[in-house]
Write a structure and sequence with these properties.
Rossmann fold; alpha/beta; nucleotide-binding; 7-stranded mixed beta sheet; 520 residues; 21 strands; sugar transport; 16 helices; binds adenosine-5'-triphosphate
């Protein structure tokens, strides 16, 4: 608990990117046996700070003391040697290898696989995170993959474990398991540095919190004494407004703008989920939410709807009444649709290109003539104006006027990509995980803008693992399980329990719902 002996003591830690102080004289101390939260808006400097603690970024100034001794952490292997472990937000596992083989890759020693497997299994059971070391990673759920990362980290007997948004990809049940494990670790006197945008879980789990804003520490608190709203206020500096959902006036009668009709898809790889006879209508004015545990076909469904993967039957996907199943992503965008994939870098944006270039790249295909004029001359002023408009609308925080996409913090890049699509006023918007890694203030803004887009006459389809989010914005909720989609339930009839049962694979017929008595 707080008050224990100090394990890590950081003074004046500073990291400068160009002219931006991503961390500006940060002080932080972590006691033995405490769970310490690191809070802050997108771009506040949390990732930059922990990268310095884990040796993957070099500070420009400041001091780190570990067990009272000044240290220089020059590489992740140096961090591990000291006893600092990290579980990353994005996993770095090979799908075609087993859990044990993946773990072996990160251990320098020439220990036989069977020994590693036995150790990993014993450790996983003792921490209540059971793991089959011989399972192929490709066959595992996101939650199980995270277990591998955690076990891999714990095998090196760290004294401090850093977790960067560990629950953003977990089901509520998996998150509960993780919390139990963290409590055990705390009980053993280990320390945990915990980054999360989910303030309720911070309140529940953490002993102390350090809050960053614009690279500086703006406060410390005991999260248990705070409310989610007061924590959000500390992070943002102002009040965070709740999302307002007006009634969908044309409920059930407006035009169908997106129709998915008996969509089937064979699995493309041994690890992907087949889609089984999915039909769904999304009408002008409404937001339909698709809930589901990660890895139940949501990614495959998004690819099929967006045109990243084509269908044999053109009618399998129709946009504004026109069969589009054989059109690619640009074709579907020209029909008035917009798509925001889950994976931002690479799919949502080209990492090394500037924001304005990213904008040009995506717009050139969809709005010919607007940004590129006669003879292929790029209309620089129009692009700059659009980029500026988007950055303002979404409050994108960045280190330069027009930085490359990979210099934005994760949440800010997500804000830019959503803003870029909203700026086109699409008739059909399909988004996968709209607020993944986004802070409370920005998440509220994104959710509100999706509702407003629908109410202005567009059809909005949102795939999300965040049930609170779906309940906040959806007019109807459907659940994807094992490649099948349940019938959308009107929001007024949907409960967490019903949706949760379907997510767990209950037969849709066994969950009671009527049709289509709208609407809350
Ligand atoms: N490699 C880089 N080059 C230039 N600027 C960077 C780089 N990495 C981060 N930044 C900038 O530093 C600031 C802090 O980013 P950081 O990723 O630490 O934020 P964060 O608090 O982790 O945000 P999020 O919650 O969105 O993950 C941001 O303004 C970001 O644009």
């Amino acid at each position: 608990m707080a008050g224990g002996e100090t394990l890590l003591d950081v003074r004046g830690l500073t990291k400068v990117f160009g002219t931006l102080k991503a961390c500006d004289g940060v002080d932080l101390d972590i006691a033995r046996g405490e769970i310490h939260a690191l809070l802050g808006e997108n771009g506040a400097g949390k990732s930059t700070l922990v990268k310095m603690l884990f040796g993957s970024l070099e500070p420009n100034a400041g001091e780190i003391r570990w067990n009272g001794e000044p240290v220089r952490i020059t590489s992740p292997s140096e961090a591990r040697r000291l006893g600092i472990g990290m579980v990353f937000q994005h996993f770095s596992l090979f799908e075609a290898l087993t859990a044990a083989e993946n773990i072996a890759l990160s251990l320098d020693a020439k220990t036989p696989i069977s020994t590693i497997a036995a150790k990993a299994q014993a450790l996983s059971y003792s921490y209540g995170l059971p793991l089959d070391p011989y399972a192929l990673v490709g066959d595992l759920s996101v939650g199980e993959r995270q277990r591998i990362e955690i076990i891999r980290c714990l095998l090196q007997t760290p004294q401090l474990v850093i977790l960067d948004e560990p629950t953003s990809v977990l089901t509520p049940q998996e998150a509960d398991k993780l919390f139990e494990t963290l409590e055990r670790l705390r009980g053993e006197g280990k320390s945990i540095l915990y980054i999360s945008h989910r303030l309720e879980e911070v309140k529940r789990m953490c002993d102390r919190a350090t809050v960053l804003r614009h690279g500086k520490v703006v406060g410390h608190c005991d999260p248990r004494q705070e409310t989610a709203a007061s924590l959000a206020r500390m992070m943002v500096g102002t009040e965070v407004h709740a999302v307002v959902r007006s009634v969908d006036e044309g409920a059930g009668t407006a035009d169908v703008l997106l129709r998915v009709d008996h969509l089937n898809r064979a699995p493309a790889t041994p690890f992907s989920i087949p889609l089984r006879d999915i039909s769904l209508d999304v009408r002008a004015g409404e937001v339909i939410g698709i809930a589901g545990v990660a890895g139940n076909g949501q990614g495959e469904f998004f690819e099929a709807v967006s045109g990243e993967v084509l269908q044999d039957r053109a009618e399998a996907v129709s946009i504004r009444g026109k069969p589009a199943g054989r059109d690619g992503i640009s074709g579907r965008r020209r029909m008035g649709a917009a798509f925001v994939p889950e994976e931002r870098l690479g799919h949502g944006a080209a990492p090394a290109m500037k924001l304005s270039e990213n904008l040009l790249l995506s717009r050139h295909a969809t709005d010919p003539g607007v940004y590129v004029g006669a003879f292929g001359i790029v209309r620089g002023a129009a692009i700059s104006a659009a980029a500026k408009r988007i950055n303002q609308m979404m409050d994108v925080r960045k280190s330069a006027e027009d930085p490359p996409a990979n210099a934005l913090s994760g949440g800010n890049l997500q804000k830019f990509i959503i803003g870029r699509e909203l700026d086109r006023q699409p008739s059909v918007m399909v988004v996968n995980q709209p607020t993944w890694g986004v802070d409370a203030g920005a998440a509220a803004r994104i959710r509100q803008s999706l509702i407003e887009l629908a109410r202005s006459g567009s059809a909005v389809l949102v795939i999300s693992q965040d049930l609170d989010e779906l309940f906040e914005i959806s007019d109807k909720i459907a659940v994807m399980h094992n490649g099948e989609l349940s019938k959308p339930m009107p929001r007024a009839e949907a409960t967490y329990e019903k949706v949760g049962l379907l997510m767990g694979g209950a037969e849709p017929g066994h969950v009671h719902h009527h049709d289509p008595a709208e609407m809350a």
